């Protein structure tokens, strides 16, 4: 077996033509849907970036126990399990979070990896004294900084070295993936993961992709929205959205390059293909930009998935309605290579769904660490918040006490205790670390970051835009039972139930 896994970041499902999108032409995603099965009810698990990738690699939910951080010593990583079974895996990525403190153990699970530099705040190019007078005029004040370690400054410097289309990180990322295929396509027993940060903000695309989305904006570069409520003027909002659309067009072009290679060498006969994303991104819907700050709306959590198994060519061009989520990818990749899933994996292989569309699970649980617990059964979504996000009892369970950019502080660790092993830690006790307001994660992607905290129930059939919360004690009670059962099956700690006011039993 051979497999290619394409992972985008912040790829909005509803913008893609196979899911009804019309604003951006995406003919190559349409080509992909003709060759693969398209999953209509695929959801996230843990958010944002690295929590989603821990779900993806381990087949378990991250957010019930820990925020952003490395893989744990007891985690089952699907590329590591493939390696132990004699299969080769290679990662090509420009997702720089893998190479920070909070992602340091993910990329090393692959047999080899290729890191493409230059995305967003990647500390890539060294420029001690940039030409600030010129650069200040070029960039909008909300995406400008002179602070040495600030992501805006790093991005401004990086962009001084990314001019031609061939220099864009996502373009280089796919080129490196095609190079792997050119060198290895006649070999057997490998998995290639092509992972790009695009279309994640900043929404920077080569000039030719921007032409179709010109807004008449004459101001400084404006392609990086804040995480939070929309407060920009309409013309500024249009420019931000237009730049996202341009990067989506670039992503479609890159998918087309890969499909062309599959066509040229007839890889369809012996190579699996999986294409998805980690989460979506709000572009003004619900009066918000981005993620992390608001309720987990459909635009963020309902994501695209395309799956092609060469042994099941009859599934090409079909659609699947089964409720699936990110934790199902690890067991799916293992199943492609006939490697048994580890006992701790909670996800399900999706390959049987290619033979027949059927129910895989009753519900999907998802969330941010320290935020609401969220669940969907495919018809309803239920978002249950603690009464007070700032005063809730909350602990991180980890043996790798590291945030995105730095280890846990001594102040955080001062309150740590040793907790008994959990069902998935393979007999290892773990640190139980109280969450404090001075934690680096608290106001960035933790409980202090949220701008909405109202428990809500939505009916996606009658209200797909989630504009009006539904009041139904009977349905809320049923969704609460489903939430409790899924939390129990994922070994949620006792305080996870208490903080949202439901019984663990």
From TrEMBL:
Top-rank lineage group of the source organism: Bacteria
InterPro entries referenced in this protein's UniProt entry, alphabetically: Alkaline_phosphatase_core_sf (IPR017850), Sulfatase_N (IPR000917)
GO molecular function, one term: sulfuric ester hydrolase activity
Pfam families registered for this protein in UniProt: Sulfatase (PF00884)
Keywords: Hydrolase, Metal-binding, Plasmid
GO cellular component term of the entry, any: cytoplasm
All residue ranges annotated as the Sulfatase N-terminal domain in the record: 4-339
SUPFAM superfamilies in UniProt: Alkaline phosphatase-like
PANTHER family assigned to the protein according to its UniProt record, in alphabetical order: IDURONATE 2-SULFATASE (PTHR45953)
Protein name (record): Sulfatase
């Amino acid at each position: 077996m051979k497999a290619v896994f394409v992972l985008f970041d912040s790829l909005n499902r509803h913008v893609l033509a196979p899911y009804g999108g019309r604003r951006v032409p995406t003919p190559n995603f349409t080509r992909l849907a003709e060759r693969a099965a398209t999953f209509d009810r695929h959801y996230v698990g843990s958010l944002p970036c690295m929590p989603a990738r821990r779900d993806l690699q381990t087949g378990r939910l991250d957010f019930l126990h820990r925020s952003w951080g490395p893989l744990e010593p007891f985690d089952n990583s699907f590329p590591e399990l493939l390696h132990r079974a004699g299969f080769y895996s290679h990662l090509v990525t420009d997702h720089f979070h893998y190479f920070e403190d909070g992602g340091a153990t993910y990329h090393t699970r692959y047999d080899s990896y290729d890191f493409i530099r230059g995305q967003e705040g990647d500390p890539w190019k060294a420029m001690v004294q940039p030409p600030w007078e010129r650069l200040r005029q070029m960039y909008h004040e909300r995406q400008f900084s002179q602070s040495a370690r600030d992501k805006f400054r790093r991005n401004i410097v990086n962009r001084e070295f990314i001019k031609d289309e061939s220099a864009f990180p996502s373009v280089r990322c796919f080129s490196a993936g095609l190079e792997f295929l050119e060198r290895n396509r006649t070999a057997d027993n490998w998995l290639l993961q092509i992972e790009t940060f695009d279309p994640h903000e900043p929404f920077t695309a080569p000039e030719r992709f921007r032409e179709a989305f010109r807004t008449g904006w004459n101001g400084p570069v404006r392609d990086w929205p804040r995480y939070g409520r929309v407060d920009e003027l309409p013309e500024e909002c249009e420019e931000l959205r237009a730049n996202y659309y341009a990067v989506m067009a670039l992503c479609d072009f890159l998918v087309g390059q890969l499909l062309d290679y599959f066509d040229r060498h007839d890889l369809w006969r012996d190579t699996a293909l999986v294409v998805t994303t980690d989460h979506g991104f709000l572009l003004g819907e619900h009066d918000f930009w981005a993620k992390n700050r608001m309720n987990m709306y459909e635009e963020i959590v309902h994501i695209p998935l395309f799956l092609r198994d060469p042994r099941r060519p009859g599934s090409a061009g079909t659609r699947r309605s089964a409720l699936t989520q990110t934790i199902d990818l690890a067991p799916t990749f293992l199943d492609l290579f006939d490697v048994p899933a580890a006992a701790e994996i909670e996800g399900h292989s999706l390959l049987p769904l290619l033979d027949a569309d059927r129910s895989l699970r009753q519900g999907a649980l998802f969330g941010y660490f320290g935020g609401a617990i969220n669940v969907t059964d495919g018809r309803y979504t239920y978002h249950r918040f603690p009464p007070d996000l700032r005063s809730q009892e909350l602990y991180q369970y980890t043996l790798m006490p590291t945030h995105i950019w730095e280890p846990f502080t001594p102040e955080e660790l001062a309150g740590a205790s040793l907790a008994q092993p959990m069902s998935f830690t393979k007999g290892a006790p773990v640190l139980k670390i109280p969450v404090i307001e001075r934690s680096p994660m608290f106001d960035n992607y933790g409980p202090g970051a949220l701008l909405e905290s109202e428990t809500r129930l939505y009916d996606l059939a009658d209200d797909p835009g989630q504009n009006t919360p539904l009041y139904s004690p009977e349905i809320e009670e049923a969704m609460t039972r489903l939430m409790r059962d899924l939390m129990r099956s994922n070994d949620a700690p006792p305080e996870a139930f208490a903080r949202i006011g439901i019984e663990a039993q």
